[in-house]
Amino acid sequence: MVRGLLLLVILLVLAGCSRQGTPIVAAAPLEAPEVAQRSIATAPVIPTQSWPTQTPLPTNTVAPVTQTPLPPTATPGPPPLRGGEAAPPLSGELAMVTYSLDLYRLDGAPPAAVVQQLGLDGEAAIENGSRLIGGTLSGRVAVRFEPPQSGECAIRGITRSDLRTIRLFYAPDTDPNRMRGILAHELFHQIQRDYYGERDHRKADVILLEGMAVWGTADYFRAEDGRALYQVRAKAAFDEGRLLPLTTSLEADCRTTTRNDIYNQWASFVEYLLATYDRDALDVAYRSSSGRPAGSADWVAAYGKPLPVLEQEWITWLGQQ
Ligand SMILES: [Zn+2]
């Protein structure tokens, strides 16, 4: 009987130990919620303090480093390319591919290293021209540098915007700064075409086609006093009494000097129109033309007056500049 009671006491003591042990074990899960609660209580403080300065950028930059560590010798992936209309592959050496441009060269043209310098200049020119027109490229453009043309009707660049192709004609030792401006001019034609559409651009009045392109790339052609070169030269022609008629035909007189002179005047005329009338009127005139010849736009529909009247207004304005 006593032995039975003793056994019962021992069992109860053992049971008490196990109950004491249970709380110890149970203490861990109890502590865990405390830790969790502390972190919950403090967590909102940290994000609200850190969010204003920790934009998504830090997490974006950390992720690739921790998740995809690249060996130092790894080459970056291909750069992003502008989508939309494709540029045709051209013959010659493909010297560079940029976001918008495939730049080629032929033997006798500037070397690949120079062409590569001009690639990013071309992208900047696209940005600039797009801002001025209010539209941008609808696809990629192929640019090819070719040996220079010769003769009194030689041209430095030509754009087939329907084929999304630009050709530039320069000697290997040409100063890249000279080519930068002409590349910008030809790219401006492509932006015009993509903004107005093939149907209207194909038959645009050359006064607006070229006048806008020279006006829109004035940053690349500045006189020493900072004025646009076309402004200086159109004013000089006025002062010297040698303004050409705005309807001067380059089919009848293809000389490079005539081309330069009339381009400068057309640019000055476009500047006058934009300074005096709505931009919408310019777009109406651009789209209204029946063909490429100078003066072929429907000026009355766009401005309520014929070209000779607008031309006289412009000459008066030019005299006041
Ligand atoms: Zn042009």
Question: What's the structural blueprint in terms of helices and strands?
Answer:
Elements: H1 2-42, H2 45-50, H3 56-67, E1 93-97, E2 101-105, H4 112-133, E3 141-146, E4 157-160, E5 165-169, H5 176-196, H6 198-202, H7 206-216, H8 229-239, H9 256-276, H10 279-288, H11 299-303, H12 307-320
Helix pairs in contact: 4-5, 5-7, 7-9, 8-9, 9-12
Bound molecules: zinc ion.
Zinc ion binds next to helix 5 and helix 7.
The gross shape turns out to be globular
On the 0 to 100 scale, the average pLDDT is 82
H-E string: HHHEEHEEEHHHHHHHH
Q: State which percent range the strand residues make up.
A: 5-15%
Bound molecules: zinc ion
Structural class: alpha/beta
Number of strand segments: 5
* Physical arrangement of strands within the biggest beta sheet: 1-2-3-5-4
> What is the CA-CA span between the terminal residues?
129 Å
Number of helices: 12
- Nearest-angstrom radius of gyration? 36 Å
Number of domains: 2
Describe the largest sheet: 5 strands, mixed
Q: How much helical structure, as a percent, in the residues?
A: 55-70%
Runs with pLDDT <50, length 5+?
Answer: 1-66
Describe the structure.
The structure is a single chain. The chain has 321 residues and is of the alpha/beta class. It has 2 domains: 116 residues, 2-Layer Sandwich (Zincin-like); 119 residues, no CATH class. It is 56% helix and 8% strand. The protein has a 5-stranded mixed sheet with strand order 1-2-3-5-4, with helices on one face. A hairpin with a 3-residue loop joins strand 1 and strand 2. The protein starts with a helix and ends with a helix.
